[in-house]
Amino acid sequence: MAKITFIGTGGGRFATIFQKRATGGIYIADKGLLMHVDPGPGALVKMYELGLDPTQTDVIFVSHAHPDHYTDAEILIEAMTLGGKSKRGLLIGSESVINGIEGYTPISFYHKKIVREIKVAKPNDKFLIKDLYEIYITPALHSDPTTIGFKLMLDSGAISYTSDTQLFDGLITAHKGARLLIICLTRPLNGKIPFHMSTEEAAELVREIKPELAILTHMGLKVLSNATKQANWITQNAGVPTIAAIDGMRIYMDDKIEIKKD
User: How many domains does the chain have?
Assistant: First the structure.
């Protein structure tokens, strides 16, 4: 059974600055896999509040080099490697995260050195995690041009994560077949801006992919003021159950998908 914990469901600069929701990303646990996705500010502290042990993490995935996605990555690398004493774990990141591009150099040389394996991930890459799970790297259209998402193939089905992006045809194609679709939604109805997902775009994405369940997270300040309304609008217009995640929420995915809200 896969368990997905939403360590933090806020995103975007102002939701992050004011901490209207936590910004710790997502934790995926399955047989032989503990994976932290986009550990933004406060991820380490929030993990302990939720009873998650950062020293047990196997994989850290950082989709791009914006602070609300990577700020706690280095301290979590230290946790994963027991302060650098145990060379273990896998770091997956975009080009901007791992090698840096103009304006972006988030992960230090020291922290890259203490990890056992690093993958500089680009759209359409595919590789195995722990020789068990295939992960497909998906494209995004964001202000960091190297931003990536993923589709992770688990025994109980595929989990897709869009990261920050606006809608485009390649996004729909890349996430086809997802049983659980996790969408970073920073913009509400009638609030579309470039490089970010709006509610209208999310509804089109969900309608085309037809997952069993869609979940909104990494929500911007204007989304958080009426997140349930945004989710309900998508449900009605896409014909697929869609929920707005809350901090600490857990999803259990087996024959059925179950939702537990703390």
Answer: 1
| Strands 33-37, 59-62: pairing kind | parallel
DSSP 87-139: -EEEEEE-HHHHT-BTTB--S-HHHHHHEEEEEE--TT-EEEETTTEEEEEEE
pLDDT of residue 261: 85
- Tell me whether strands 213-217 and 180-184 are parallel, antiparallel or unpaired: parallel
Q: What is the CATH number of the domain that holds 191?
A: 3.60.15.10
Strands 180-184 and 157-161: parallel
- Any domain includes 41: yes
What proportions of the chain, in percent to the nearest 5, are helix, strand and coil?
Answer: 25, 30, 40
Residues 134, 140, 145, CA angle at the centre, nearest 5°?
A: 120
The answer to whether the pTM exceeds 0.90 is yes
Residue range of the domain that includes 157: 2-246
Q: Hey, is 246 helix, strand or coil?
A: coil
Q: Is the dihedral of CA 35, 40, 44, 46 positive or negative?
A: negative
- Pick the range with the lowest mean pLDDT from 99-103, 220-224, 226-230, 251-255: 99-103
Q: Is residue 8 predicted with pLDDT exceeding 90? A: yes
219 falls within a domain: yes
Domain assignment of residue 258, yes or no: no
The mean per-residue pLDDT over the stretch 38-62 comes to: 98
Euclidean distance between CA atoms 77 and 100, whole angstroms? 18
Query: What confidence tier does 203 reach under pLDDT thresholds 50, 70, 90?
Result: very high
- What are the φ and ψ backbone dihedral angles of 25, each rounded to 5 degrees? 85, -150
